[in-house]
Description:
Pfam families: GTP-bdg_M (PF16360), GTP-bdg_N (PF13167), MMR_HSR1 (PF01926). Keywords: Chloroplast, GTP-binding, Magnesium, Metal-binding, Nucleotide-binding, Plastid. By secondary structure, this protein is of the alpha/beta class. It folds into four domains: 82 residues, no CATH class; 167 residues, Rossmann fold (3-Layer(aba) Sandwich), CATH 3.40.50; 76 residues, no CATH class; 183 residues, Rossmann fold (3-Layer(aba) Sandwich). Helices cover 37% and strands 14% of the residues. It is built from 16 helices and 19 strands. A hairpin with a 5-residue loop joins β10 and β11. α3 crosses α6, α6 runs antiparallel to α7 and α7 packs antiparallel against α8. The N and C termini lie far apart (62 Å). The site of magnesium ion has 5 residues, from α9.
Amino acid sequence: MVFRGRVTATLLLRVGQLASSTPKAGSLLLPTTSSTTQLSPRNAGFIRSNGSWRSHHALFFSQKHKTGWSIGHAPTITFWSRIVSLFHTTACSSQGLIYNYDSDRPPRLLVVQPRTYPQIILKANLLEALRLASSLEELRGDKAEDDPEKLPPYMLVQSPESGKSRKRRKRVRADAYFGSGTIENVRTQVVVIESQDGLDAVFVNATLTAVQQRNLERAWGKPVLDRVGLIIEIFGAHAETKEARLQVELAALNYKKSRLVRMPSKDGRLTFGMDFEAEVVSARGRGSGGGRGFISGAGETEIQLQRRRISERRDRLLTMLKEVRRTRSLHRDARRKHGMGGHGNRLPVVAVVGYTNAGKSSLVSALSRSKLYIDDKLFATLDPRSRSVTLPSGQSIILSDTVGFIADLPIQLVEAFHATLEEVVEADFLMHVIDSSAPNAEEQRLAVLQALESIGVTKEKMQQCMIEVWNKIDLASKSPSDSNGIKLEEIEGGDICLLPEANVSGQVSSGEVSSDDDETTNGVILEEEENAENHKELDASEYTSLSWCSDGIPRIGISVRESIGLKNLLDLLDKKVVAGPKPYAEIEA
Ligand SMILES: Nc1nc2c(ncn2[C@@H]2O[C@H](COP(=O)(O)OP(=O)(O)OP(=O)(O)O)[C@@H](O)[C@H]2O)c(=O)[nH]1
Ligand SMILES: [Mg+2]
């Protein structure tokens, strides 16, 4: 047995060959994927008497590494259990990064979705919001999307940013984002849901300023998470490696820095931080020391102190990240030069990019015949993983699975994950995976292209080095969002609250709530028709063979799940890699 490093951080255990059998209640599980195995709160656990996992950490691991479990022999259990309980204690006390929830009891959220037009985009946005909200729920072990009844309650509300007419747009209220009618409608629903099922927080699927967030929290009497905050929180919950955890913490710090608010601390004193029912104050206005005006400056105001603390932590994180990245970069270079089938030659790297949940990891796994972590949830992959693949011509390449993008990707995450995303910028070729079954596939495609541009991938590189892979063509003709227990028929009225189907009775209250909306429906229909042209459902058969986008990027339709089109894709990739970076039309000519 070998112990290295600090006990609370990482414990490396040499796990012997343990008896392998069906897990029994009370057994301690240890992963045995290799002789040296990392034991952390997420990869060791007990089985309860009813057969379920004792904690979500263990469940997390069990989902992720379906192979390689062993059951410890009885005499070793007491020893191991002490170690494991130590980790459980550490893990169970951990909290969210942005919003202080107990990781053992992720928050129950009410999703507030501002309306977007046309309806198909609203459907897609709402589905995404629900998936984001249930990402934290999944930590409990429930898979909300498998069961519509477990979807969080949601409300469709008037959007100040995308009203039905140009006149209504840009009416975002600087102090509270929404209009007073909408705020009141949400408040009513918060009270109803709270009294029935309990409610911890409200998730607004939009980007809010600190002041807007604080005022909404006051109006609704609940903590409010905006899109950026929730995405960072989900990254935090899914981060596994040291680098990912450091990067997420950095993103959370960047987010918090711009949102320092005054709040009651545990001892009742008002202090600065990020929390519910806090008060935004200016740096000078209410500082505990330093006086006012030109005589200020003696000592440090409270907000300065908090900012300094954040900056110091940020510097520490950056130093730690630098070290972790240096090691990873050395490994990467070694792998490129010698590792996978090379004779000292650098293998071409193909970065697999795309919207989150498009099927990137599934594709890399299928092409390389290896097992990467695949899950039907947003941001399943946070660390780049590389696998080698031999193309039909005999040329070997490295496929690099990457973190997924999302529309309105928080800038804090882009900055923090800079090094991870650098792999994409440096890659020789890009394989852009698109979920062709998504109702807003085209919007997702554009969001990814925009994100790629923002991290430094030039348009020229996209045209010369990219292949578009339209995945999930087995689903493209179905409409998955319709079967998710989401009801949208009633969106023509005012703000509506919809609960998951099992609870809907008596809760659909479009007639009872007041509305900010003073529009006639004429404008809606016209605009929807105009836009609908651009958002036609995809016809799967269109893409089963190679075709070209208008900008010259080759696109091909596949289904990883049904193994359709994978051979064609390899042939296309082969052509592209052998020809080198040039527009596909030139390769064909
Ligand atoms: N129906 C269908 N499902 C697929 C296909 N390819 C992948 N999936 C499913 O899509 C879900 C997401 O797959 P992943 O490979 O984890 O997606 P990803 O793009 O790596 O997602 P992130 O890492 O979260 O960004 C999983 O449930 C897969 O089983 C396909 O061709 N057809
Ligand atoms: Mg993935």
